[in-house]
Write a structure and sequence with these properties.
The structure is a single chain. The chain is α/β, with parallel strands linked by helices and about 300 residues long. The chain has a single domain, classed as Aldolase class I (TIM Barrel), CATH 3.20.20. It contains eleven helices and eight strands. An eight-stranded parallel barrel has the order 1-2-3-4-5-6-7-8, surrounded by six helices. Helix 3 links the parallel strand 2 and strand 3. Helix 10 packs antiparallel against helix 11.
Length: about 300
């Protein structure tokens, strides 16, 4: 095992975490959340997505959120795009990182991006060329790497073809997304064993959902394969609007707690993140999926907790 001593966590709560929520979060509250996450030590944050506002109303204010982002040269801000139109919108903003994403599943690609698999290559080509020509950093992600309801198990060669396509563009990070939460430790290790030699040193990350309770176990499997980049969401918020029974990402606080217990450096302050998870729990009127945030109630004097949420 080659377990890293330091990991980079990308907080996807402002995007993946909020996109399923029916209650609209005001733009100012989203920006305050992002600022709070920066103060908590997050060095990579996915702040929004450029998707159709009628399909994902929570992300309709993408441009406004980016316009109001706190300035911090040490933080990697990113936004998700699923098609060429999304990239065009992103390029009209100052977002430095664009996540270009494609599904390994034909069924999921059709409902999530409106594209059958046989049209994905041409669309990705347009997206990649536009983003890279404009000088943006590209995070490329492959969705449903461990299957979806209509296609399980996912053919490994299908995933590797997409990975090879993305890598050929000279991307800056490759992310494997367990969109439906169907991953298991054996699946994680098997796929990484096949894919990591192809990556040839390119940073590879895991985006894990905890739909079946194996999120952190799968993160451990990734660690054991040398993975040092993970997507997480505060409080375990999240889920895809087009996945039946979707559950949240692995919780930021839970993941950091696990890594801290192994002396793996993250640079993240759990109580500061948990303060925002508690605040969002009150806003949405329910207990969130994560565990550790419940042990870290907001303490008096924390700026993020001094304001009421309307």
């Amino acid at each position: 095992m080659d377990i890293p001593s330091q990991v980079l966590i990308t907080e996807v709560g402002p995007r993946d975490g909020l996109q399923l929520e029916v209650r609209q979060v005001p733009t100012g509250e989203k920006v305050a959340l992002i600022a709070g996450l920066v103060q908590a030590g997050l060095k990579a944050i996915q702040v929004t997505s450029f998707v159709h506002p009628h399909k994902v109303p929570q992300m309709a204010d993408a441009e406004a959120v980016i316009e109001l982002l706190p300035t911090d040269d040490g933080v990697r801000y990113s936004a998700l795009a699923l098609n060429y139109q999304g990239v065009v919108r992103a390029l009209k903003t100052a977002i430095p990182w664009i996540e270009i994403s494609a599904a390994a599943s034909d069924a999921h690609s059709r409902v999530n991006a409106g594209l059958p698999l046989d049209r994905v290559t041409a669309e990705v080509d347009r997206m990649m060329n536009a983003a890279l020509k404009a000088g943006r950093k590209v995070r490329a992600s492959i969705q449903c790497v461990f299957g979806c309801a209509e296609e399980e198990p996912m053919p490994e060669e299908q995933i590797l073809r997409l990975a090879e396509m993305f890598l050929s563009y000279g991307i800056h990070q490759l992310v494997l997304a367990d969109t439906t939460g169907m991953g298991t430790p054996l699946k994680v290790k098997r796929l990484l064993k096949a894919l990591l030699p192809m990556a040839a040193g390119m940073p590879v990350g895991l985006h894990l959902h905890d739909t079946r309770g194996l999120g952190l176990v799968n993160a451990m499997a990734g660690l054991e394969m040398g993975i040092s980049q993970f997507d997480t969401s505060l409080g375990g918020l999240g889920g895809c609007p087009f996945v039946a029974g979707a559950a949240g990402n692995i919780a930021t606080e839970d993941t950091v707690y696990l890594f801290n217990s192994m002396a793996i450096e993250t640079g993240i302050d759990i109580p500061k993140v948990a303060c925002w998870s508690n605040r969002l729990s009150k806003l949405f009127g329910r207990t969130l999926q994560g565990k550790i945030y419940r042990l870290e109630p907001c303490r008096a004097g924390r700026p993020a907790c001094d304001r009421n949420t309307n």
